[in-house]
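Study this:
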Amino acid sequence: MAGRGRGRGRGRGRGGRAGAARLARSPSPASSSSSEGEWEFEFIVVLNGDPLDIQRLLNKFAEFVAGNEPAALQLREAGCGFCRWLVDVLFDGRGKMYLHTGWEKFARFHDLQVDCVLTFSYQGDEEMSVKVFDDTSCHRHYHSDDEENDD
């Protein structure tokens, strides 16, 4: 995995759509059988266009996964272990990465609107945690952990 997440400074996002990327590596490498906790990449996206359209992700994140591009990501509500959406990922061949099939379902369920802010946290293994903040900068909560135990 050496070299992942490094670039030549190209591919910065335009129009203030995304930012605040953070890359962290655990102090000791994880075993090759498990990447949990080994790599983490966090960033924000402000929804400026139609929230139901395919969503472009931060260029630095596309660089981070370069060479190991996922075909899909499991989007998981932060704090909810059972709320997951499978979303196909598209790469345009020019370093751009998009959330595609499955994104509209995620966006509709979460009632995403223009000016919502999403925080994405990639934990590896094609899994990404998502927090949604509305136009008042308040974190939206859709489920509680108690619902997981309800039958």
